[in-house]
Structure formats: structure tokens, C-alpha cells
Design brief:
- This protein is α+β, with helices and mostly antiparallel strands and 138 residues long.
- The protein is built from three helices and seven strands.
- The strands form two sheets. It has a four-stranded antiparallel sheet, with no helix packed on it. Strands 4-1-7 form a three-stranded mixed sheet.
- Strand 5 and strand 6 form a beta hairpin.
- It is elongated, with a radius of gyration of 27 Å.
- The chain starts with a helix and ends with a helix.
Length: 138
């Protein structure tokens, strides 16, 4: 009878481990205007609105660009939920028989690109040139 109990226990353990759950992590990025190219940690993930899977929580470098708009370079942090910390992570990712979907949504607004008049650029360049010449003569 002892042998049957061991086999039964081993079978239950194997079933629990193989039928374990999983955590799906998804991040959606929306921009205003839509259709901007989105980069996460220097990897292009698509045009907004875009949804991508991710595997870790933490700081992400975000770059968003679109013709006629200023390029946005920033960072955002994805904070892990409570069930991603020890010892809960074991139950959420291995023991729990269902699937957990962890979704996040970020929104960014790109400022319009402004064109500086040519005369204003030339005046600023002349002022900088004079400042450099003055510094060199001292």
C-alpha cells in the first residue's frame, strides 16, 4: 500500500507542475497623434497604437517619432504586481491552473514640430559667433 501512495503522490505533483498556470504580460502604447513609430529600449515595436508582450518589470526607455512632430525620448517604469513577488510568483506562474493576463497602457502626446524662421536662426548664430569670439579674445 505504501508504494501506491508514493506513486499517487508523484502523479499529483507531476500533474500540478505540468498543468501550471502562466502570466501573460502585455503593454499597449497609444500616442497623439496616432501612427507614430514606437521604440522600447531601442527596439522598434510598431506604429501606435501598438500592443507588445513583455517579460520583465522595471524601467523602459521609450522613444516615439513621427514626421512633422517632435521626437519624444523618455523613460517609463512598469511596476510588478503583488503576485510577481516571492513566494506568490511560484503559485501564480506554476501552481495556479489558470492564466493571468497583466495589461498596462501608456499614453504619450507628441508636441508639434515648430519651424524657426530663417532670420531668427541667423540672428542667433551671429550672437553665438560673437560670444565665442569675445571669449577667445579674453
Amino acid at each position: 500500500m505504501r508504494k501506491i501512495e508514493h506513486i499517487l503522490l508523484l502523479t499529483v505533483i507531476i500533474l500540478v507542475l505540468t498543468a501550471g498556470g502562466c502570466v501573460e504580460r502585455r503593454l499597449t502604447i497609444n500616442t497623439e497623434p496616432q501612427g507614430a513609430t514606437v521604440f522600447l529600449n531601442d527596439e522598434q515595436i510598431g506604429k501606435s497604437p501598438v500592443t507588445t508582450d513583455f517579460s520583465w518589470y522595471g524601467d523602459y526607455k521609450v522613444r516615439i517619432k513621427k514626421e512633422g512632430w517632435q521626437t519624444l525620448n523618455t523613460h517609463r517604469r512598469l511596476k510588478a504586481p503583488w503576485y510577481d513577488y516571492f513566494p506568490f510568483d511560484f503559485f501564480a506562474q506554476v501552481v495556479y491552473p489558470g492564466s493571468i493576463v497583466d495589461t498596462y497602457e501608456w499614453e504619450f502626446e507628441l508636441p508639434e514640430q515648430t519651424q524657426i524662421p530663417k532670420e531668427q536662426l541667423l540672428e542667433k548664430a551671429q550672437a553665438l559667433k560673437s560670444e565665442v569670439e569675445q571669449t577667445q579674445s579674453q
